[in-house]
Design a protein that fits this description.
Elements (H helix, E strand, L loop, with lengths): L28 H32 L1 E3 H4 L4 H22 L7 H9 L6 E7 L9 E3 L3 E4 L5 E10 L2 E8 L5 E2 L14 E5 L6 E2 H8 L1
Parallel strand pairs: 2-8
Antiparallel strand pairs: 1-8, 2-6, 3-5, 4-5, 5-6, 7-9
Helix pairs in contact: 1-3, 3-4
The chain binds zinc ion (ZN).
């Protein structure tokens, strides 16, 4: 793994703030306070709602955003999306994978969705006493020129797992199984997705079907 970046990957100016919670998006103190904090607040709010109703949500296979964000589910969904755009961007910057992060930075600063990042909400299926908080490694798929075509990262906050997936437009890949949740395709109902599974190459999938 490459060393952590010494400057904040969002503003590209100030030093990294090492006091921030390692589980959340890391950046400089100012970007943390001004850019990320409102997104982090929305995720905590959604997580509280999901945790309180998780057994029923798993039975139904979906949840209603307007219950978690009664005042404005559209803004709530956008902020949760941006929180995880920041989380995935942090991992991509930290591991210096060679992906252009400008679209991540501009969506955070302009508070608009990243077109190529979707979330999948899954049941963590952790036994009592098992892991309660877990951040996965970054799963990358590259083409023969080493260009990143897909990046997937999981955040488990028991009992909920959020899978954050970047998919390069036009890449010959099938997205992870399940129901991508993206603020542009605005729906109040968010469907749960399987815990396992990541993007697969179309040719791999075809050969598996033979
Ligand atoms: Zn910064």
């Amino acid at each position: 793994m490459s060393p952590e970046p010494r400057v904040c990957w969002i503003c590209q100016k100030r030093a990294f703030d090492r006091t921030r919670d390692a589980g959340g998006p890391q950046c400089c103190r100012e970007c943390g306070n001004k850019v990320i904090e409102p997104f982090e607040f929305a995720w905590k709010k959604l997580h509280s709602y999901l945790t309180a109703h998780w057994a029923d949500i798993v039975k139904l296979g979906r949840f209603d955003l307007s219950k978690a964000f009664p005042q404005d589910s559209r803004i709530g969904a956008l902020r949760v999306h941006l929180y995880f755009v920041a989380a995935l961007g942090t991992r991509l910057a930290t591991e210096a994978v060679g992906l252009d992060l400008e679209p991540f930075v501009s969506s955070l600063l302009e508070r608009r969705p990243h077109a190529d990042v979707s979330l999948f909400v899954a049941d963590a299926r952790v036994d009592p006493g098992g892991l309660r908080l877990y951040d996965s490694d970054l799963h990358l798929l590259r083409n023969q020129d080493e260009e990143v075509h897909s990046a997937l990262w999981y955040h488990l906050a028991h009992p909920v797992t959020i899978k954050v997936n970047y998919l390069k437009p036009g890449a010959p890949l099938c997205p992870p199984p399940g129901h991508p949740w993206h603020p542009v395709r605005q729906r109040k109902l968010v469907m749960l997705s399987p815990y396992r599974g990541e993007a697969t190459r179309r040719d791999t999938l075809q050969s598996l079907r033979i």
